[in-house]
Fold these 3 entries.
Entry 1:
Amino acid sequence: MITDKMKNLVINGSAIRAMFEDGKNLKAKLGAENVFDFSLGNPSIVPPATVKQAILDILENEPEMFVHGYMSNSGYEDVRDRTAQYINSQHGTSFTRDNIVMTVGAASALNIAMKVILDPGDEVVLIAPYFGEYNNYISNFDGVPVVVSPDYERFSINFDELEKKISPKTKLMIINTPNNPTGAVYTEDDLTRLAALLTKKQQEFGTTIYLISDEPYREIAFGGLKVPYLTKFYPNTFVAYSYSKSLSLPGERIGYLVTSSEMEGFADTMDALNVANRILGYVNAPSLMQRVAGRCVGQTSDLSVYEENMELLYNALTEYGYDIIKPKGTFYMFPKCFIADDKEFCAAAKEFGLVIVPGSSFACPGYFRIAFCVDKQTVINSLPSFKKLAEKYTSVK
Amino acid sequence: MITDKMKNLVINGSAIRAMFEDGKNLKAKLGAENVFDFSLGNPSIVPPATVKQAILDILENEPEMFVHGYMSNSGYEDVRDRTAQYINSQHGTSFTRDNIVMTVGAASALNIAMKVILDPGDEVVLIAPYFGEYNNYISNFDGVPVVVSPDYERFSINFDELEKKISPKTKLMIINTPNNPTGAVYTEDDLTRLAALLTKKQQEFGTTIYLISDEPYREIAFGGLKVPYLTKFYPNTFVAYSYSKSLSLPGERIGYLVTSSEMEGFADTMDALNVANRILGYVNAPSLMQRVAGRCVGQTSDLSVYEENMELLYNALTEYGYDIIKPKGTFYMFPKCFIADDKEFCAAAKEFGLVIVPGSSFACPGYFRIAFCVDKQTVINSLPSFKKLAEKYTSVK
């Protein structure tokens, strides 16, 4: 009796769940110590101590009717002030509370932006490989995903194909930098080129093309790399942010959407985002966690373990013969499989206790994703398995 | 550049906001002590002490990666267990965790249910007067609202008209008991009759007609009245619940959806709700507040002030000549205006410092809503104004 559309989504959901079940089944078969589950992008490090301290301090010192009560659908004014000030201090931008909507994580930030701008049939450009959930969000508003195939050199943007795929029906492009699943970070040159292309296409077609930069991994960038801020490159930009990874609070559903003041119809857009937050059933970002985010903006968990894990894995796996574009951020790595069939490769990996995700799930067959948001010892213990997996395909010279 | 659909929603949103601004402007004009703002359904009483105690205890005794982390999209198993057990203890039902999805308030509970069952063009029956936000939720899924006009005798259900308005395209009916804006509570007889009618129509058309009972006011029932539990009357029932009013936590966005085990395709529906919670961008109900809800299920704020306010207002206003169906629950009252034009009436009320909402906002012109979730002294102080407002229309005999 559920809709056909939902039936298909449930089938997909079951496939994902089945993959997660694999880890459990493998542990029963091989012993827990011989299974290395790299399937889930779930933070492995505790929130910074300031999160707990902030909650205790808020409960002690802020009125509870205020802390747990309704506020503007866009969020508490003071929290939006502090958020804007922090972004300005990092990126030399000039945001105020009026650029910020506090949201139920980055997922709802993406959804309210799409609710405001997408008409049925509008095309949304995605750069493969990409987070599969974007397809579902686009489908919520009857948009049409248009996928640009991967840039296999750097996992940046395949600009020649992008240029061909932008049409008069293109309303939106979504980018994700630092990137899930590749760990790529787009350079200033990439973004300058992207902005120029979108601007040219807007003029050519007489349309507005919006850009959403989805940035839950902004703070996980390696070697002190600074991730460029998108509103400085292109005016019609939204930035979706989440505290899930930076503060290790994925269950709390707290994030925000930044809208460039230079966006066409900026004031109308902000009014509409406020309404969209309400009518999509979010109403507002959870109130206590908004107050926590206001106090903890700019702070992070100790993210260094992700870089250590990355270096360990990258050095060992390249030595074993894996072909990998070295990640510049996130807690993901996206090596090439030794065979064309990534599903077969990931199935074979299970023999060695490795739970990894086929690149097909990210519209990029022939690759696989390692989510290395696990403790360092798990990475170290897993290396012999990655070696054996490589030898399975390379030992016969 | 925003969509035309959103433009219209923003215009509506601005009208609501303008009404809320009225209170502020009136205070500047008449003095704060002479303004009585009954426009907003925002709890006026503090959460029970157990909420703060629960948060402190959770922070002290539960692992923080668990408290702030991801869980099943449907919510923590133990929280769903306790929720089911509590409902069973109150209503003699037999729910388990498998009937419960924890949600971002009742708003998201309604949205995930509609995502799962509504195809574009499906009709959704609403009973006037009703909470206007239902129209927006239905619109999120391209459903078509079909409004049954009010039962002016009891603000129950106009069954004759309902029978005519159920068509082969009817997929869903939404009821809200205790009711916003009338305070009505449907009786067991009402619900038995409703269930029989829906069952008959399902057979007649060979269709499935779902029922959502939206119950954020369940615990605010007067004189010890017990509000019947809908799944006991009709198998294809969802119950949407929120802790916003019972625990005075409206900003925290925490609630749940109960699905009857007797629903057609129950298992598929539960799988689909789990997926819908994810892909609509909620992902899961906020984790810390889920844990709080698990500990505080069955507890409430001291709700007695609402009943005291109701009695005060009802007795005084009927004495002044207002025609009122006495509320049986909620913190709303829905008297008849002294003139047909409810907007004119509510504008006139401002002269006396009264901020009240026209019945037109609830698809019931000629009436007005008083949200008496304010402190008792405000109610007492407002009575002379209600008297003067009545005299304006009744003094010339």
Entry 2:
Amino acid sequence: MEFEKKEITKKSKDFSRWYTDVILKAELADYTPVKGSMVIRPYGYALWEGVQQRLGQAIKDSGVPNAYFPLFIPHSLLEKEKKHVKGFSPELAVVTHGGGKKLAEPLVVRPTSETIMYPLFAKWIQSWRDLPFKVNQWCNIVRWELRTYLFLRTLEFLWQEGHTAHATAKEAEEESLGRMKMYQDFVEGVLAIPTIVGRKSAAEKFAGAENTYTVEALMPDGKALQCGTSHNLGQNFAKAFEIQFQDKDGQRRYVYQTSWGLSTRIIGALIMVHGDDNGLVLPPRIAPIQVVVVPIDPEDKEQMEYARDVAAESNSALRRADQGSAATIYIDDRSQYTPGYKYNEWELKGVPVRIEVGPAEVRENAVTVVRRDTGEKCQMSNVKCQKEIEKILNDVQENLYQKARKFLKENIREVEDYAEFKKVMTGPRGFIKAFWCGSSECEAKIKEETRATIRAIPLESESASGRCIYCGRSSSSQVFFAQAY
Amino acid sequence: MEFEKKEITKKSKDFSRWYTDVILKAELADYTPVKGSMVIRPYGYALWEGVQQRLGQAIKDSGVPNAYFPLFIPHSLLEKEKKHVKGFSPELAVVTHGGGKKLAEPLVVRPTSETIMYPLFAKWIQSWRDLPFKVNQWCNIVRWELRTYLFLRTLEFLWQEGHTAHATAKEAEEESLGRMKMYQDFVEGVLAIPTIVGRKSAAEKFAGAENTYTVEALMPDGKALQCGTSHNLGQNFAKAFEIQFQDKDGQRRYVYQTSWGLSTRIIGALIMVHGDDNGLVLPPRIAPIQVVVVPIDPEDKEQMEYARDVAAESNSALRRADQGSAATIYIDDRSQYTPGYKYNEWELKGVPVRIEVGPAEVRENAVTVVRRDTGEKCQMSNVKCQKEIEKILNDVQENLYQKARKFLKENIREVEDYAEFKKVMTGPRGFIKAFWCGSSECEAKIKEETRATIRAIPLESESASGRCIYCGRSSSSQVFFAQAY
């Protein structure tokens, strides 16, 4: 029986349609009857489980345990930090009825959890001995949004949010910078996505924060996508929620806080950055299936047995190499599909390495190995394959990172002239590195005229001087502009 | 410096206050500013993570992948299955406003996910090749409830819900029975809680199900607590949501479905069943910390070094024994607390085994091992301890199970007289095994007069005959009654 090949739009032809096609056809996610909401299907959710496992371990290893706080926030709590409520008000979903009755006070569905967590922090933190206090939560978040863009813009999404409280401003600053670095390491090291990092401008920072640090990646269409942010909240929330501790000298002092999060949006970045005309291309370190073994004829007993041996040996080889991690190898023994259909499907699903096993391979105790990233196909002995499988996966990981890094580098442009700035932002887009005087007015004008925002202010300013790209005033600080998702 | 010992009410004196004391003092959970909602604190959440890991692996191993469906359900979808909406209507939280506007159609916060999942099942399931279709989700659930009882009755709770679709009624029945068995294995094997299983009566079954299967445990106060349920939904939802597949003969047929869930309530059972006057008592297979090593004087370098060796060796011994599982050993090196304070705290937190290390132990290359369940304390050589640590933990696990099993057995009473039934239900309570004629009227009267409900109808009916405990009509089926949480 022959099945129709799953066709997708070419990436080069229509990037946005390609993106949606890949998600729907590779069964990562789907639309739902709830406007603005998506369902994350098993193959897509396996990617999020990979994030939870890898990033989750890093969070735990850094001494932050998980907990779970309420979904609903009484409106009066949300209002305690003035800038915070102002920032989130337009995006709220509000529960007004419960158990058949109108509520005396409406409940907000969490758009982030500062205001429901911090009254409890105030209760739990009493002494300097309770500090630093750190907790993390994996949960769902709601921010009102009806124009769904799968993974990138949905009414509901999943994330982790870490929250910490410290005795000193210095510790809070170090924590927030450390979390930015943690996200960068994860996004670059596991997802193979190169990033630029830095501080947000006053206009772009988190509502209620002193400083927001960000990890930004560049998508193939030249738009930036934020991959995790970390906020130094200073004492803003501590004062609003009366989070005080008795210090060693007996004085009661407000704590200094941070919060930091990474969401399912990151899966959108993963798809966009590495995918190609044939579909998804997954870095091995996040791929739910790292190697698929396809016997040409699954009805042939000898071939199936050989395929099983190859899979088992590859599995052992990878487990030995990558202690404790879940090397996943899948044998596609479905007999209702042709090998061609299967190759197409696994390419669409972005499995890093495919091992084909046919009569010739069985005869010669060999395998045919096909790399998803380059399409390279080569026959080798089974013994060699087992020896090299780890190296091949590492090569795929590294190749994907380097390819994306090259694209990022080529698309960071230093621009000194506003006409050129505008041209770049209509043309190739990408990041523009330009001098900025620091005024919110110039920033707002640039956004209005080019849709570009300041994505990141580098942390180490190279000693340079120039003129603000918009107003021409002298400036000593170059910042990264881009249009963003 | 000396700290006050954390006091809790005695279990025998006031069971309900003891329960709340243990939860608050062992920092498993806390009340929140949101009426009806609780926060699960890190030590309590670690228990839930244990559930997610152990039960989650069983679910995955049985071929059910995880996914994530929307939190919000349009009210019109909830209404599609008539009995279902009727059952859940009184418990709903309703979002009426989003993004600052009143919604055209109110959204319900999921009280369970059948009605948001199944429109998508209808889209994804087309052919017999797509069956069986199975998916699981770990998520938060809201059922309106303002009288909080920590873990047992809260407005919001966490759970997993598995949903499957099958080509035949037989397969669906097998699936729902299999999931009941899976929950029983988990609750008995990991949580060391003995259970009785069976079918629910028409009055007690899930709104919209053909049959509900249940796993029931007995709490020390004689009340039953449901530990997971599994529903055979028949074609009720398939017809409401038009979930059809083309069968091998070309005919379009409705699927048969099941759903099954286990929630954070289970942690309430775990606390109640095993705890004692000194606090929590955790079965090793679910304990976040299995062994705590307490050096008497953490400032003594030699002692600390020895304590670290003991911990490292115990860790290796346990990891060898229990491949892949996370044996967790914690060294309590806090110098601001006395050993007595620490012993008290770890007892309160239910850590199965405590290893004390003082000058005598260092001198003799020995350790003092204290079991949480029995209080037994014995000195042994470090070598012997490493050899036996696995066995000791297994003994604790088995002892807790047997103790609870004895209690359960002693509290299942066969009763043939309604006066005695009423007396038992005011007195020791527990399960009553009694004949029931099968009528909902008798069932309702019994509930009204004794607050006892039918908890489970045994699956294999022993060939017996007797008279209905309420109406006296002849009956061939004995069922389990109890008051319930």
Entry 3:
Amino acid sequence: MRIRVVTPVTASEFSEGAQAIRDILAAARSDDHVDHVQIERGPASIENEYEEAMAVPDTLRCIVEAERDGVDGVVINCMGDPGLYAARQLVSIPVVGPYQAAGHMACTLGHRFSVVTVVDSVVPMFWDRAAVYGFRPSLASVRVVDIAVLDLEANRDRMTDRIVEEATVAVREDGADTIVFGCTGMAGVAQRVAERLSARGLDVPVIDPAPAALKLCELLVEMRWSQSRRAFPTPGPKAMPGYPDLVAFPRAGR
Amino acid sequence: MRIRVVTPVTASEFSEGAQAIRDILAAARSDDHVDHVQIERGPASIENEYEEAMAVPDTLRCIVEAERDGVDGVVINCMGDPGLYAARQLVSIPVVGPYQAAGHMACTLGHRFSVVTVVDSVVPMFWDRAAVYGFRPSLASVRVVDIAVLDLEANRDRMTDRIVEEATVAVREDGADTIVFGCTGMAGVAQRVAERLSARGLDVPVIDPAPAALKLCELLVEMRWSQSRRAFPTPGPKAMPGYPDLVAFPRAGR
Amino acid sequence: MRIRVVTPVTASEFSEGAQAIRDILAAARSDDHVDHVQIERGPASIENEYEEAMAVPDTLRCIVEAERDGVDGVVINCMGDPGLYAARQLVSIPVVGPYQAAGHMACTLGHRFSVVTVVDSVVPMFWDRAAVYGFRPSLASVRVVDIAVLDLEANRDRMTDRIVEEATVAVREDGADTIVFGCTGMAGVAQRVAERLSARGLDVPVIDPAPAALKLCELLVEMRWSQSRRAFPTPGPKAMPGYPDLVAFPRAGR
Amino acid sequence: MRIRVVTPVTASEFSEGAQAIRDILAAARSDDHVDHVQIERGPASIENEYEEAMAVPDTLRCIVEAERDGVDGVVINCMGDPGLYAARQLVSIPVVGPYQAAGHMACTLGHRFSVVTVVDSVVPMFWDRAAVYGFRPSLASVRVVDIAVLDLEANRDRMTDRIVEEATVAVREDGADTIVFGCTGMAGVAQRVAERLSARGLDVPVIDPAPAALKLCELLVEMRWSQSRRAFPTPGPKAMPGYPDLVAFPRAGR
Amino acid sequence: MRIRVVTPVTASEFSEGAQAIRDILAAARSDDHVDHVQIERGPASIENEYEEAMAVPDTLRCIVEAERDGVDGVVINCMGDPGLYAARQLVSIPVVGPYQAAGHMACTLGHRFSVVTVVDSVVPMFWDRAAVYGFRPSLASVRVVDIAVLDLEANRDRMTDRIVEEATVAVREDGADTIVFGCTGMAGVAQRVAERLSARGLDVPVIDPAPAALKLCELLVEMRWSQSRRAFPTPGPKAMPGYPDLVAFPRAGR
Amino acid sequence: MRIRVVTPVTASEFSEGAQAIRDILAAARSDDHVDHVQIERGPASIENEYEEAMAVPDTLRCIVEAERDGVDGVVINCMGDPGLYAARQLVSIPVVGPYQAAGHMACTLGHRFSVVTVVDSVVPMFWDRAAVYGFRPSLASVRVVDIAVLDLEANRDRMTDRIVEEATVAVREDGADTIVFGCTGMAGVAQRVAERLSARGLDVPVIDPAPAALKLCELLVEMRWSQSRRAFPTPGPKAMPGYPDLVAFPRAGR
């Protein structure tokens, strides 16, 4: 089995072996079958609808390449799940988005979950996508630590403190019984957050979304399940000026 | 007042003064204040999530240019509303999407509406966006005429016949009391469809979405209303390799 | 084009050229094609279900008269939309209610809106009608300034202050990104409220519902759209003791 | 205990001891404490939003009179529940509407119910009110026998046949497990309909709404429960030109 | 008419003529036709999903016995409605659960109700069952007095104080206009709670669920209505090792 | 890692190495860490609410024993998920139910799924639980093959044919894009059903729920995630006459 993590942002913080990716591999005990690529064109990080949209074309290129490389499944390494549905139309291997994966997983562990994410500008995206993914009734709240994505790595302690604070409010006031991190850049502190919440008497699962997505992807590969072709039909051939890398869609043999 | 229609597809059928655009202008009695541009990079037409995603970057460029040109409002000329929310973050002038506009307008004319669109592959997109836009409970059904977008112009009569057939089923079996065209390429036959439905005893409004969006845009400009900045916050400056045209975001003075 | 505003209350404050009506006309730049009538039988103002119900019969008479007078469209000048669905069954010209119009318009400008209205006794009506109109999921909250309808005119400054206060809470605590006034008697201060909210860092559209309804009505007339006859079927002839003015329904030729 | 049935239509078929009322009394074994009045101003029967609206003012007069007469509870004898919420604001005794009562009662007997009613023009009213009453998710379908209200009495056998036919489709195709009659004029045949459905292997409760409302009203009187004053606040005094009978609201001592 | 109250807990507090039962009988003016049994195997009280599940087998035995004894209807005396749907499959007489009955009754008295119950561990059960029963949109909140079931009897005054406190918050902050007690062990203080809330200006109905269920059961018996056999089909014969008392299902003659 | 499959029915067909269990182990490539137990008291099979309720006490005993035996996670081998929430309160190791697991997994592969199950009497249970689990909006339909659970093993070919037939209707008419088997007794034919659907042009994932649950359980164990203690609080000590095996709850050290 080979899984590829596609990071849909161009900031070098992510490419130079950021802690997030290392944590993902460690969590998965999957060092031997997971590799990682990063897009070359697109936003440094994703913190709004605009940046997410701009990340999609090159993310799709990376995912199509992954299938051509014989990879068995792909995880998009961003809680905005950029290009998730478009990518599923282009490849047969399973494509997993961390928000969709972590959200549904949270639904199997409790009644209502809260997302604790980075900044205000991404909050509406979580609500909108929850409506599309079908778990909006189970989403108790979306709270922010108010730290930009690219500042997370340099502020791990403050980030952790703030996550604990907001998760505490989510459980006590918003009625959440499960916490989902709202940025894959928060990877690696879930265990610590869970312990500190538990010390406050709040025994709730804390879901790190990138590992959740990676493990779900492994599960799908093992079970030979993939996204529904009926739900995500293969596009026919069509001119696409300005995007020569993607002109070969759809692949023969679909 | 100046309104710009941005067509987010590259097929020349659309650029050479297609009937759709002429109909839009005529319907709006707005020939003097509406102009039209078309993207240069992106799909020939939009019939799935993939093509829609690929249309967004150049659509955003056109919309930012429109504001710089002093235009007062923009209509995205495609029922997929590609880039709608991203564009709203980038400009202050109102940006209107035909699906969102026509859907909410249909809600003010009846209890439940059906979309009659082109092909199966776009059906899930209408349901998903209805969930985001908030009118999913009012969406009775999404039906298809099974004619590709780029074949509509050459098959106006068959297209009209098929729309009438599917709209009839939508009203009789799905409980719709209002019909919304599911492709801006269908523009211009709404009146004829309404008359033929009426001849069958089905008196229902038939909404042509591009004119609906254009007129809503005019209304917003006249009232000096625009999208909520709170809902669509302006992105901060950020590196965007590969997209030099868009690097100047956000504009000064926001 | 001729539009008629029907005010469904009998208080003279409204009939003697109240500021609300003047503002509507000014906002619409429509002084030349909008006229105004007021009911003669019914409540002085509408602040509960009872008063709304009592306003309906004479409102219907006025709307039927409007069509007989050759008017092209009607706006009911009250956020309770009294008689909206009944009137639509009686005439072919479009009949627009401010709450339905402003609510759906708000949905096209943001994700969630709040209504700021007069007094507690009308709050349940906004929730109930939101369920009927289909936008209940997008309604963040209904807040009150606690000033009776007939006291608004004499307390414009306090009214404006209170609207700003409640709108601030709606945005900060209830998650609204758009504000809709909950009484057509609040007409005329939307611009001022928006500026004061903006000065607090809250950039949200503020929708004055009567102008919103008037402009939507103009749009429908221009597009020759009207309410769905399928949704609002014409009543057959039937005895109606006690209401001789209305006995001629339905009109010939429907 | 004294209960008053208020019939909100003026047709003499209802006033001259129609079978419906006799059935109600018999079903309730309540002949000794139920009386009956009928409005004097308003529609002969109610088959659309217009007629329902016109029935309300005199219905309110009758309900206020009922309380002044010392009656303990009121049932509005029409499935449109005309004036239900307005009346509740005007009196302290419980006011019960057959649709609300029968709908919630159906919810306690099965998972999903269907309404079988008279004609197409009332169908949207059942859906709209289900949204307000909160049981829209439990409403499987609304089906019609296509017989006008005033023709029901002269066509009892055909009415019964048609109810059985539509109820059969409701159970087999729409997933209903409980049937609610959609017109109080259908009173008296519920037992027969249930037996014929049972003979087809469809064992479902068949709810006659007027008796359901009457028995719920008795229950409320016995338990000394009434509508929430918080939900239905008492109107303050206010001018009401054209309706002298109602001018004395609100009563002293509330 | 004979109604049997089945108490699905084994604590002797309940069996020795607890105030709750006496209140139920008094409230119902039904002393002559209501009797009471209590399960012999199962939890002392029910305060979580586990205890509720363990109460079901013996509750079913009691309900089947009730039908064999010729009883006309059964009320399960616990707000968790343990075994409600299973019991309905086993008998033809109506089986009523206090939560379902009181919840739907509350829906007929106002717009939104709150449950005031015993301890945190039962809160999710109220939300879950509201989803199944269909009234989740009408459930404003679930609040707790933080007194264990078996301590209620010894702390009637503190219990009443706490109910008043939580009900006050439910009305003022959660938007409830009706209160439902969330434990049948709270029976008997509804009138007092309502008076104290009224003294605070909060005029809301306070529903005691066991009497509500008992009166609804009487109503169903009088109307000869029972649960839908279509919704709750009779099980066929099947081996059931370990539960000899229940082996005779289904009864002949069904 | 050790996972235990608890089969909550007593029929020997299941205990003697039924194909279902073997398939589960094969699918999981988990033969070395999965064992299997079966309850001793309870129904032969589960086809209604009654039988499900009767299966719960001994299922809980088995799950508590599993934790005492040092097992790392438990799968309840029945699509009714009997005792799922109660069991979660009693143990700290993850307890997974096939319906909840497979339903949420289906949501990550498409837009809407259908359940194809055994007999009519279980259909309402799937709808009810979908409401509790939060995925009711994504459940397109529940269809039945009309073969009793205990007859599945002897009729594998007919079962497969019938599943294909009903799944075809689910996709073509109900709008499903993903199929979930509605009985763990159907295990082992998913691949064959998917191929036959694909031969009909219906490319949809076919989810075998027991393996889905087993793999999700492995994932949770690997990630050290378990159900939320906040959502499923540990019961305190309490008398439980008639169930001596369970009297030791809660375990020390929780």
